Amino acid sequence: METTAILKSKRNAFMTFAFTLLMSFTAFAQETTSGGAVTTNSTTTTTTEWYADPMYIIGGAILLIIIIALIARSGRRSN
User: Fold this and answer.
1) I need a labelling partner for 73 at 20 to 30 A (CA). Which of 35, 55, 62, 67 fits?
2) pTM, whole model, 2 decimals?
């Protein structure tokens, strides 16, 4: 019984070590090693989508409140 606990402990320690090692490899792989200048060419285009316009958000919120109010009123009318 004690042997299995020791083996599980060693296995967990090894898995933790392996995971840490692989994550450090991944982190170091993200770094650039070029000492020279890096040139990037990019163009930016700004477009306004309908869902980014605040007027549509406000209008949708008002419409939602009206629909909820109508549903709540129709529930009270039943006799």
Assistant:
1) 55
2) 0.36
Indicate the residue type of 35.
Answer: G
Spatial separation of the C-alpha atoms in residues 36 and 56, rounded to whole Å: 48
Tens of pLDDT along 15-65?
999 999 888 888 776 656 565 566 777 777 777 777 778 898 899 999 999
78 pLDDT higher than 60 = no
DSSP labels for the chain?
-HHHHHHHHHHHHHHHHHHHHHHHHHHHHTS----S-------------GGG-HHHHHHHHHHHHHHHHHHHHHHHS--
What's the CA gap between 19 and 10, in Å, rounded? 14
Q: Which residues contact 51 (CB under 8 A, 6 or more apart)?
A: 57
